[in-house]
Amino acid sequence: MGHFKKKQASTNQGVPTAAMPDVVFMLLIFFMVTTVLREVELQVQVNYAEAENIEKIEQKRLVSYIYIGPERLSGDRLGETKVQIDDSLVDDMGSIRNIMYDKLMEEPRLIVSLRVDEDSEFGVITDVQQELRHAGTLRINYSTRREI
């Protein structure tokens, strides 16, 4: 009696990857289209002072903004001069030092841009500058509008 050998198909059981670049490209486009760049919601009023000799910062990702101005209250009223970092008002001036030190540790080339309302109390601005000095964030600029 003859023994029959069972033939086995020599097919590859791998996952087809021919369409993978198309899928990756579609996902990339989807995320680019649906991503929203977040804007800071200002809780203080900032009308920039004018200046003649101004310079534009090219690398925006290195910049951290601090807003100083009268607090916006309900009914278009303005309150006392307040400091805002990112989306929150800073109640304790001493916390500015810690917040900015942490930002400096994340990005050693950090530039702090002060966006100051022209009617802000000068004492608050001086306090913020002192806190920035203690945090070691010595690269500071002032946002202004061009003098006409």
Fraction of residues in β-strands: 15-25%
CATH architecture field of the domain at 50-146: 2-Layer Sandwich
> Helix count, per DSSP?
3
Q: Kindly provide the radius of gyration, computed on alpha-carbon positions and rounded to a whole number of angstroms.
A: 28 Å
Strand tally: 7
For the largest sheet, list the strands in their spatial order: 4-3-2-5-6
Mean pLDDT score: 79
Can you give a write-up of this model?
With 148 residues, this protein is α/β, with parallel strands linked by helices. Helices cover 28% and strands 24% of the residues. It has a domain at 50-146: Nucleotidyltransferase, domain 5. The strands form two sheets. The chain has a five-stranded mixed beta sheet, covered by helices on one side. Strands 1-7 form a two-stranded parallel ribbon. Helix 2 (94-106) crosses helix 3 (122-135). The radius of gyration is 28 Å and the shape is elongated. The model has no long low-confidence stretch (mean pLDDT 79).
Task: Write a short abstract of this structure.
The chain is 28% helix and 24% strand. The chain is built from 3 helices and 7 strands; from the N terminus they run H-E-E-E-E-H-E-H-E-E.
